[in-house]
Design a protein that fits this description.
This protein has 14 helices and eight strands. It is α+β, with helices and mostly antiparallel strands.
């Protein structure tokens, strides 16, 4: 049975309006940014890229002295949970980002990772040569979306029984909207810790940060189980691994024609949108999450080269392996624009 997906079907119609899907950051900015804003975005993307390759050197290059202690604290929390420096690669490599106050001397840049429902808040200050990070911390999505919220160990997109691509799209849109609403002016930016309720760093490190670190580690371990064969593993993992590898190989070299021929439950607007995507935009595609149920599994893919989208593939289990049933393409920027009513008018299918 085809799954109805109002947000993603609307996105498919929006994607049809653009023949090329150029990489863009999920950030609502002016049509004509200032030089300060442009330099800020360049530095922030440079920071993200550097943290994927060499966190230590990147912190030394981008962080001012006051922020280095907080970087060290987060490193320690990741290491104690088992992630180590690899935690930064997953946390920032598959995150969207938004910024508030880019035209001000200080700006708040937030990297939100929906898979672990965690946001990394970085406070930047413009200096003579470039922007520098003067403060940093991470916070659960619950505290980002609502003041004094109860922190649920489960990421938002995994709560409830809804269709997972839909909950993922909603998690991104809801959280980014909350960031841009709650930190809309310079006063809120200056008091960002108070707004989040993490002004007590010691309490945050004791009670909240370990939850974030463990959630990140558990996500890494699930991905490792899917990617790396191990002795005594569930035989279904091996079958799913073959289907996942085959899909990646096909869409990154040939495009979506063959997968769409198999994925009979893919909706008509999504088929049309996927057929337009250039395989080159799938460069670096790899699994970032998966959920398995009775007789089926849904695998999500993204590329750390852009972090602009996620692709989901629902497979049905059979004796011969996992057969592709449904594909969804979710470009984050369009997701957000449609959710807040900024996108083009589209009809639901």
């Amino acid at each position: 049975m085809k799954t109805r997906l109002p947000i993603v079907n609307a996105l498919a119609a929006a994607v049809l309006l653009t023949a090329a899907l150029a990489p863009t950051a999920l950030r609502a900015g002016p049509a004509h940014p200032t030089l300060l804003e442009v330099n800020g975005v360049v530095d922030m993307l440079g920071f993200r890229g550097g943290m994927l390759a060499d966190p230590g050197a990147t912190v030394a290059a981008f962080a001012a002295a006051p922020a280095r202690g907080r970087f060290a604290a987060i490193d320690k929390q990741m290491s104690e949970a088992g992630s180590g420096a690899a935690g930064w690669r997953l946390l920032l490599g598959t995150a969207v980002f938004t910024a508030a106050g880019l035209n001000q001397p200080r700006t708040l840049v937030v990297f939100y990772n929906p898979w672990v429902d965690t946001a990394v808040f970085t406070l930047w200050q413009a200096r003579s040569d470039r922007w520098r990070i003067i403060d940093i911390d991470w916070a659960p999505g619950d505290l980002v979306r609502q003041a004094a919220a109860e922190v649920d160990p489960r990421p938002l997109w995994l709560r409830g029984e809804a269709y997972r691509p839909e909950t993922l799209a909603e998690a991104v849109a809801t959280t980014v909207k909350a960031i841009e609403t709650r930190f809309a002016d310079q006063k809120q930016i200056a008091a960002w810790r108070d707004t989040l309720g993490i002004e007590d760093s010691r309490g945050h490190d004791t009670y909240i940060a370990p939850i974030l670190a463990m959630r990140l580690y558990e996500t890494q371990m699930r991905l490792k189980a899917l990617a790396v064969p191990t002795s005594g593993e569930d035989p279904r993992l091996a079958l799913l691994r073959v289907s996942v590898a085959g899909l990646i190989e096909t869409v990154t070299t040939e495009g979506f024609a063959k997968p769409l021929a198999e994925a009979g439950d893919t909706t008509a607007p999504m088929r049309q949108a996927l057929a337009m995507i250039n395989p080159k935009t799938m460069n670096g595609l790899s699994p970032v999450a998966f959920v398995a149920g009775e007789g089926q599994a849904t695998v999500f893919f993204a590329s750390i080269a852009t972090a602009d989208y996620t692709l989901s593939a629902r497979f049905a289990e059979s004796a011969a392996g996992y057969a592709l049933q449904q594909l969804e393409f979710i470009p984050y920027a369009a997701t957000y624009q449609l959710a807040v009513g900024q996108g083009p008018e589209t009809g639901q299918q």
